[in-house]
Amino acid sequence: MYGVSLAATLIAKKRGLDPEIAAMAAMLHDLYAYKAESYDDHAHKGADLAREILGELKLTDEVETDMICSAIYHHDDKLVTDGPMDEALKDADVIDHCLKDESKDVKEKEQARFDNLCEEFGL
Length: 123
Ligand SMILES: [Fe+2]
Hints:
Layout: H1 2-15, H2 19-28, H3 31-36, H4 42-57, H5 62-74, H6 84-99, H7 108-120
Helix pairs in contact: 1-2, 1-6, 2-5, 2-6, 4-5, 5-6, 6-7
The protein binds fe (ii) ion.
């Protein structure tokens, strides 16, 4: 999650989004999957878990919490376009998947998004 968080920070800064909110969304985005040891519906269930955690932490206001939970909820929908922060988390996830082990092929559902990111960041 640290790699996704770093990528999310970079993307948010480039796109004029709040990098701290992007980083928080990224740090929480797969927590449900780790806790449940399953990726089944982890994005939707992870949004609920993140809302619980953020409610306890009281570090974010309602708008920030909604933004983080929305990004987590949508992060597995790589083939559709959602809001700017949702897209920042999806793209950060794709950067992490594609760059942390370049011996692996880019997943088909992530290829177009990765191509767009390479163009956006001049890679
Ligand atoms: Fe995920």
